[in-house]
Task: inverse folding
Protein backbone atom coordinates (compact mmCIF):
# COMPACT_ATOMS: atom_id res chain seq x y z
CA UNK A 1 0.00 0.00 0.00
CA UNK A 2 1.31 3.43 -0.92
CA UNK A 3 1.71 5.63 2.15
CA UNK A 4 1.85 9.33 2.95
CA UNK A 5 3.91 10.79 5.78
CA UNK A 6 2.22 13.49 7.81
CA UNK A 7 4.13 16.41 9.32
CA UNK A 8 4.14 14.59 12.67
CA UNK A 9 6.10 11.77 11.04
CA UNK A 10 3.09 9.49 11.27
CA UNK A 11 2.78 7.27 8.20
CA UNK A 12 -0.74 6.67 6.91
CA UNK A 13 -2.08 4.69 3.94
CA UNK A 14 -2.74 6.81 0.84
CA UNK A 15 -6.08 5.02 0.49
CA UNK A 16 -8.55 5.19 3.36
CA UNK A 17 -12.29 4.85 3.82
CA UNK A 18 -15.02 7.51 4.04
CA UNK A 19 -18.17 6.89 6.07
CA UNK A 20 -20.62 9.68 5.19
CA UNK A 21 -24.23 8.41 5.17
CA UNK A 22 -23.22 5.25 7.03
CA UNK A 23 -24.69 4.27 10.40
CA UNK A 24 -28.03 5.90 9.68
CA UNK A 25 -30.21 2.85 8.97
CA UNK A 26 -30.27 -0.19 11.24
CA UNK A 27 -30.90 -2.67 8.42
CA UNK A 28 -27.62 -1.61 6.75
CA UNK A 29 -25.59 -1.74 9.96
CA UNK A 30 -24.15 -5.26 9.76
CA UNK A 31 -23.06 -4.75 6.14
CA UNK A 32 -21.50 -1.36 6.94
CA UNK A 33 -19.56 -2.78 9.88
CA UNK A 34 -18.35 -5.62 7.64
CA UNK A 35 -17.20 -3.05 5.04
CA UNK A 36 -15.23 -1.01 7.62
CA UNK A 37 -13.62 -4.17 9.03
CA UNK A 38 -12.76 -5.38 5.52
CA UNK A 39 -11.10 -2.03 4.78
CA UNK A 40 -8.99 -2.32 7.95
CA UNK A 41 -8.10 -5.94 7.17
CA UNK A 42 -6.91 -4.88 3.70
CA UNK A 43 -4.78 -2.02 5.02
CA UNK A 44 -7.15 0.92 4.35
CA UNK A 45 -6.76 1.79 7.99
CA UNK A 46 -7.41 5.53 7.72
CA UNK A 47 -11.11 5.94 8.53
CA UNK A 48 -12.82 9.30 7.98
CA UNK A 49 -15.97 10.40 9.79
CA UNK A 50 -17.48 13.62 11.24
CA UNK A 51 -19.81 14.68 14.03
CA UNK A 52 -22.09 15.95 11.24
CA UNK A 53 -22.55 12.54 9.60
CA UNK A 54 -25.92 11.32 10.82
CA UNK A 55 -25.46 13.70 13.81
CA UNK A 56 -23.01 11.25 15.40
CA UNK A 57 -24.40 8.03 13.88
CA UNK A 58 -21.37 7.53 11.63
CA UNK A 59 -18.93 8.05 14.52
CA UNK A 60 -20.87 5.53 16.62
CA UNK A 61 -20.78 3.01 13.76
CA UNK A 62 -17.04 3.51 13.28
CA UNK A 63 -16.54 3.12 17.05
CA UNK A 64 -18.37 -0.22 16.96
CA UNK A 65 -16.50 -1.43 13.86
CA UNK A 66 -13.01 -0.66 15.21
CA UNK A 67 -13.55 -2.13 18.68
CA UNK A 68 -10.62 -4.44 19.28
CA UNK A 69 -8.67 -2.90 16.36
CA UNK A 70 -8.07 0.62 17.69
CA UNK A 71 -4.29 0.50 17.53
CA UNK A 72 -4.25 -0.41 13.85
CA UNK A 73 -6.54 2.44 12.82
CA UNK A 74 -5.90 6.12 12.03
CA UNK A 75 -9.12 7.88 13.03
CA UNK A 76 -10.12 11.17 11.38
CA UNK A 77 -13.18 13.11 12.51
CA UNK A 78 -14.42 16.66 12.11
CA UNK A 79 -15.94 19.38 14.19
CA UNK A 80 -18.82 21.54 12.93
CA UNK A 81 -17.75 25.17 12.38
CA UNK A 82 -20.37 26.33 14.90
CA UNK A 83 -18.82 24.02 17.52
CA UNK A 84 -15.28 25.22 16.84
CA UNK A 85 -14.91 27.82 19.60
CA UNK A 86 -12.57 27.70 22.59
CA UNK A 87 -14.85 25.72 24.88
CA UNK A 88 -17.31 24.35 22.34
CA UNK A 89 -14.58 22.54 20.37
CA UNK A 90 -13.39 20.81 23.51
CA UNK A 91 -16.93 19.72 24.35
CA UNK A 92 -17.58 18.57 20.76
CA UNK A 93 -14.34 16.58 20.79
CA UNK A 94 -15.32 14.88 24.03
CA UNK A 95 -18.69 13.89 22.52
CA UNK A 96 -16.89 12.48 19.46
CA UNK A 97 -14.48 10.52 21.70
CA UNK A 98 -17.43 9.00 23.56
CA UNK A 99 -19.22 7.99 20.36
CA UNK A 100 -16.03 6.56 18.88
CA UNK A 101 -15.21 4.79 22.16
CA UNK A 102 -11.56 5.87 22.08
CA UNK A 103 -9.22 7.95 24.27
CA UNK A 104 -7.78 10.00 21.41
CA UNK A 105 -8.57 11.02 17.84
CA UNK A 106 -5.64 10.78 15.42
CA UNK A 107 -6.65 13.75 13.27
CA UNK A 108 -9.31 16.34 14.12
CA UNK A 109 -10.46 18.65 11.33
CA UNK A 110 -12.45 21.86 11.19
CA UNK A 111 -15.16 20.73 8.72
CA UNK A 112 -15.35 24.06 6.90
CA UNK A 113 -14.63 27.67 7.73
CA UNK A 114 -17.39 29.33 9.72
CA UNK A 115 -17.73 32.57 11.62
CA UNK A 116 -15.79 31.63 14.77
CA UNK A 117 -12.31 33.23 14.62
CA UNK A 118 -9.69 30.73 13.43
CA UNK A 119 -7.46 31.83 16.34
CA UNK A 120 -10.03 30.41 18.77
CA UNK A 121 -10.34 27.11 16.91
CA UNK A 122 -6.58 26.66 16.63
CA UNK A 123 -6.14 27.47 20.34
CA UNK A 124 -8.76 24.83 21.20
CA UNK A 125 -7.03 22.30 18.93
CA UNK A 126 -3.68 23.03 20.61
CA UNK A 127 -5.27 22.53 24.00
CA UNK A 128 -6.78 19.20 22.83
CA UNK A 129 -3.34 18.06 21.66
CA UNK A 130 -1.86 19.09 25.02
CA UNK A 131 -4.56 17.14 26.84
CA UNK A 132 -3.91 14.04 24.70
CA UNK A 133 -7.44 14.04 23.24
CA UNK A 134 -6.30 14.55 19.66
CA UNK A 135 -2.94 13.68 18.12
CA UNK A 136 -3.00 16.20 15.26
CA UNK A 137 -5.37 18.65 13.60
CA UNK A 138 -6.21 20.18 10.28
CA UNK A 139 -8.93 21.73 8.17
CA UNK A 140 -11.38 20.84 5.43
CA UNK A 141 -12.83 22.80 2.52
CA UNK A 142 -10.24 25.56 2.99
CA UNK A 143 -9.29 27.44 -0.16
CA UNK A 144 -5.93 29.23 -0.38
CA UNK A 145 -7.12 32.54 1.19
CA UNK A 146 -8.65 30.55 4.09
CA UNK A 147 -5.36 28.74 4.68
CA UNK A 148 -3.53 32.05 4.62
CA UNK A 149 -5.82 33.29 7.39
CA UNK A 150 -4.75 30.51 9.78
CA UNK A 151 -2.37 31.99 12.37
CA UNK A 152 0.15 29.14 12.08
CA UNK A 153 -0.84 27.14 9.02
CA UNK A 154 2.41 25.15 9.17
CA UNK A 155 0.86 23.22 12.06
CA UNK A 156 -2.03 21.75 10.09
CA UNK A 157 -1.75 18.11 9.08
CA UNK A 158 -4.02 18.24 6.03
CA UNK A 159 -6.70 20.08 4.07
CA UNK A 160 -9.51 17.67 3.19
CA UNK A 161 -10.99 18.89 -0.09
CA UNK A 162 -13.24 17.90 -2.97
CA UNK A 163 -10.76 16.55 -5.50
CA UNK A 164 -11.27 14.10 -8.32
CA UNK A 165 -10.92 13.92 -12.12
CA UNK A 166 -13.89 16.24 -12.63
CA UNK A 167 -12.92 18.66 -9.81
CA UNK A 168 -9.42 19.79 -10.61
CA UNK A 169 -9.73 23.47 -9.74
CA UNK A 170 -7.56 23.02 -6.64
CA UNK A 171 -4.57 22.29 -8.88
CA UNK A 172 -4.24 25.95 -9.85
CA UNK A 173 -2.99 27.38 -6.56
CA UNK A 174 -4.39 25.47 -3.57
CA UNK A 175 -2.54 22.19 -4.11
CA UNK A 176 0.77 23.94 -4.98
CA UNK A 177 0.37 26.01 -1.78
CA UNK A 178 -0.06 22.81 0.28
CA UNK A 179 2.77 20.97 -1.51
CA UNK A 180 5.18 23.83 -0.91
CA UNK A 181 4.55 23.30 2.82
CA UNK A 182 4.49 19.47 2.69
CA UNK A 183 0.88 19.39 3.81
CA UNK A 184 -0.82 16.36 2.25
CA UNK A 185 -4.15 16.76 0.47
CA UNK A 186 -7.00 14.51 1.58
CA UNK A 187 -9.26 14.02 -1.45
CA UNK A 188 -12.92 13.51 -0.64
CA UNK A 189 -15.67 12.27 -2.99
CA UNK A 190 -12.94 10.69 -5.15
CA UNK A 191 -15.54 9.04 -7.40
CA UNK A 192 -17.87 12.07 -7.24
CA UNK A 193 -20.32 10.08 -5.08
CA UNK A 194 -20.63 7.50 -7.85
CA UNK A 195 -21.46 9.99 -10.63
CA UNK A 196 -18.00 9.71 -12.17
CA UNK A 197 -18.32 5.99 -12.73
CA UNK A 198 -20.48 6.16 -15.85
CA UNK A 199 -18.32 8.83 -17.51
CA UNK A 200 -17.52 7.43 -20.96
CA UNK A 201 -13.99 8.85 -21.10
CA UNK A 202 -13.18 7.14 -17.82
CA UNK A 203 -14.98 3.93 -18.77
CA UNK A 204 -12.91 3.73 -22.00
CA UNK A 205 -9.59 3.98 -20.13
CA UNK A 206 -10.84 1.39 -17.63
CA UNK A 207 -11.96 -1.04 -20.34
CA UNK A 208 -8.62 -0.88 -22.13
CA UNK A 209 -6.85 -1.61 -18.84
CA UNK A 210 -9.23 -4.36 -17.73
CA UNK A 211 -9.99 -2.37 -14.56
CA UNK A 212 -13.13 -0.67 -13.28
CA UNK A 213 -13.89 3.04 -13.62
CA UNK A 214 -13.62 3.43 -9.82
CA UNK A 215 -10.17 1.87 -9.84
CA UNK A 216 -8.89 4.21 -12.56
CA UNK A 217 -10.34 7.28 -10.80
CA UNK A 218 -8.64 6.25 -7.54
CA UNK A 219 -5.38 5.27 -9.24
CA UNK A 220 -5.27 8.72 -10.85
CA UNK A 221 -5.49 10.37 -7.41
CA UNK A 222 -2.95 7.99 -5.87
CA UNK A 223 -0.59 8.74 -8.76
CA UNK A 224 -0.18 12.28 -7.36
CA UNK A 225 2.35 12.99 -4.63
CA UNK A 226 1.09 13.52 -1.08
CA UNK A 227 -2.56 12.77 -1.85
CA UNK A 228 -4.73 10.59 0.38
CA UNK A 229 -8.05 9.39 -1.10
CA UNK A 230 -10.99 8.42 1.08
CA UNK A 231 -13.65 6.69 -1.05
CA UNK A 232 -16.76 5.77 0.87
CA UNK A 233 -17.89 2.20 0.36
CA UNK A 234 -20.55 0.50 2.44
CA UNK A 235 -20.35 -2.54 0.20
CA UNK A 236 -17.54 -5.00 0.93
CA UNK A 237 -17.11 -5.79 -2.77
CA UNK A 238 -16.51 -2.08 -3.46
CA UNK A 239 -13.96 -1.98 -0.62
CA UNK A 240 -12.04 -4.87 -2.18
CA UNK A 241 -12.21 -3.33 -5.63
CA UNK A 242 -10.99 0.03 -4.33
CA UNK A 243 -8.15 -1.59 -2.41
CA UNK A 244 -6.88 -3.16 -5.62
CA UNK A 245 -6.68 0.33 -7.16
CA UNK A 246 -3.80 1.11 -4.82
CA UNK A 247 -1.70 -1.47 -6.69
CA UNK A 248 -2.62 -0.13 -10.11
CA UNK A 249 0.12 1.97 -11.68
CA UNK A 250 -1.16 4.03 -14.60
CA UNK A 251 0.90 4.05 -17.79
CA UNK A 252 1.98 7.32 -19.40
CA UNK A 253 -0.61 6.79 -22.14
CA UNK A 254 -3.36 6.29 -19.56
CA UNK A 255 -2.34 9.43 -17.68
CA UNK A 256 -2.30 11.29 -20.99
CA UNK A 257 -5.77 10.00 -21.95
CA UNK A 258 -7.12 11.18 -18.58
CA UNK A 259 -5.41 14.59 -19.00
CA UNK A 260 -7.18 15.01 -22.33
CA UNK A 261 -10.52 13.66 -21.09
CA UNK A 262 -10.50 15.64 -17.84
CA UNK A 263 -8.40 18.77 -18.42
CA UNK A 264 -7.65 20.98 -15.46
CA UNK A 265 -9.40 24.39 -15.60
CA UNK A 266 -7.32 27.04 -17.39
CA UNK A 267 -8.23 29.79 -14.95
CA UNK A 268 -8.40 29.81 -11.17
CA UNK A 269 -11.71 28.61 -9.76
CA UNK A 270 -12.78 28.94 -6.14
CA UNK A 271 -12.71 25.64 -4.25
CA UNK A 272 -15.97 23.73 -4.64
CA UNK A 273 -17.53 21.70 -1.86
CA UNK A 274 -20.21 19.03 -1.52
P1 LIG B 1 -17.41 8.97 -2.94
O1 LIG B 1 -16.49 8.27 -2.06
O2 LIG B 1 -16.87 9.66 -4.14
O3 LIG B 1 -18.54 7.98 -3.47
C1 LIG B 1 -19.24 7.10 -2.62
C2 LIG B 1 -20.23 6.32 -3.48
O4 LIG B 1 -19.50 5.58 -4.46
C3 LIG B 1 -21.06 5.32 -2.70
O5 LIG B 1 -22.34 5.30 -3.27
C4 LIG B 1 -20.34 4.00 -2.94
O6 LIG B 1 -21.22 2.89 -2.92
C5 LIG B 1 -19.83 4.20 -4.34
N1 LIG B 1 -18.63 3.41 -4.60
C6 LIG B 1 -17.48 3.39 -3.89
N2 LIG B 1 -16.60 2.53 -4.45
C7 LIG B 1 -17.22 2.00 -5.53
C8 LIG B 1 -16.84 1.05 -6.49
N3 LIG B 1 -15.64 0.47 -6.47
N4 LIG B 1 -17.73 0.74 -7.48
C9 LIG B 1 -18.94 1.33 -7.54
N5 LIG B 1 -19.36 2.23 -6.64
C10 LIG B 1 -18.50 2.57 -5.64
O7 LIG B 1 -18.27 10.06 -2.17
P2 LIG B 1 -18.35 10.63 -0.69
O8 LIG B 1 -18.93 9.65 0.24
O9 LIG B 1 -19.01 11.96 -0.79
O10 LIG B 1 -16.82 10.93 -0.30
C11 LIG B 1 -15.99 10.03 0.39
C12 LIG B 1 -15.82 10.41 1.84
O11 LIG B 1 -15.21 11.71 1.93
C13 LIG B 1 -17.14 10.60 2.61
O12 LIG B 1 -17.74 9.37 2.92
C14 LIG B 1 -16.66 11.41 3.77
O13 LIG B 1 -16.00 10.57 4.71
C15 LIG B 1 -15.70 12.37 3.09
N6 LIG B 1 -16.35 13.65 2.67
C16 LIG B 1 -15.92 14.80 3.28
C17 LIG B 1 -16.52 16.01 2.94
C18 LIG B 1 -16.06 17.26 3.64
O14 LIG B 1 -16.75 18.30 3.53
N7 LIG B 1 -14.95 17.24 4.33
C19 LIG B 1 -17.53 16.07 1.97
C20 LIG B 1 -17.89 14.89 1.32
C21 LIG B 1 -17.27 13.68 1.68
P3 LIG B 1 -21.45 1.94 -1.63
O15 LIG B 1 -21.50 2.81 -0.43
O16 LIG B 1 -22.71 1.24 -1.95
O17 LIG B 1 -20.28 0.97 -1.56
Result:
Amino acid sequence: MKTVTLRSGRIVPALGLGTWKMGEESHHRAGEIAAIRKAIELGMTLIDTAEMYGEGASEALVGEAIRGHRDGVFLVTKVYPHNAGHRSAIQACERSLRRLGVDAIDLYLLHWRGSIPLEDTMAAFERLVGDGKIRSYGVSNFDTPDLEAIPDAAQIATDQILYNLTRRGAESDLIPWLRARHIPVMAYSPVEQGRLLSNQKLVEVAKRRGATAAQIALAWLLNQPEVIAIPKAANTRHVEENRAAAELLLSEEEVQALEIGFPRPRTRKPLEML
Notes: The chain has one domain: 3-261. Strands lie at 3-5, 11-13, 17-18, 46-48, 74-79, 107-110, 137-140, 159-162, 185-188, 227-229. The chain has ten helices and ten strands.
